[in-house]
Amino acid sequence: MSIERHIAGILQQIARQQDIVEIAPQGSARKAAALAHVAEQYGYTYGIAYRTGFKNSLVQVRMYRDPRPDARVREAATITAHPQAGNGGTVPGLEPGSLTPLPEAVGAAAVLKDLITFDVMALYIADRRQKVICYLACAVLTVLLLIDKSPVEALLSGGAVALLMTVAFQVGSIRRAKIAQRLTAAGFLAVRDERGDQRFLRPGQQLPGHANPFAA
């Protein structure tokens, strides 16, 4: 899908004043963050991001309509400043014809990218139960390899897979921890959702409900 169609699709959702806007660009968290920043200029706030689609190839971002008065002021100012957005005109926060943030929007887009990446990485951060399952699978693999290979070869193969999993778990945890540090430094608050997963919210924001991310 072209950049223009992505932007037009989001703006059509916004124009209908939907409580929830879905963003699903093909590509990186950077592109999703740029589009999320556009939605923020129209009075929406970040909700959650996750992977979906074939082989989890799509980053899906869910934005919620912000009910606070300052969000409505921001929306009105954006509509006034960019009356032709989605119809060939300028788009708030983005360079013309691209998903590259303008210099004044780079910082905000980077924060959104961290929020998106942190949430998306939850899919790859294994808890204790998942780690047990993975290591049991390595043990089963080793047993199956004993059928066709020598004990030494089977143990080396199973051990190599277990080592790769361990490294992947560790690298993912370290990267996510660094993102968490940046979000905390940016003023976000760490909370736990209903599944026990860590999330980051702006001060005064609650975990999203059906349509209101500020409802208790």
Overall description:
50% of the residues lie in helices and 13% in strands. Strands 1-3-2 form a three-stranded antiparallel sheet. It has a two-stranded antiparallel sheet with strand order 4-5. Helix 5 runs antiparallel to helix 6 (151-185). The protein is built from six helices and five strands; from the N terminus they run H-E-H-E-E-H-H-H-H-E-E. It is α+β, with helices and mostly antiparallel strands. The relative contact order is 0.12.
Beta fraction of the residues? 5-15%
Biggest sheet, in brief? 3 strands, antiparallel
State the end-to-end distance. 37 Å
Would you report the number of β strands? 5
Counted by DSSP, the helix tally is: 6
Structural class by sheet pairing and helices = alpha+beta
Order of helices and strands: HEHEEHHHHEE
Radius of gyration computed on alpha carbons: 21 Å
- Low-pLDDT stretches are none
- In helices, the fraction of residues equals 40-55%
CA-based shape = elongated
Mean pLDDT: 82
Strand order of the largest sheet: 1-3-2
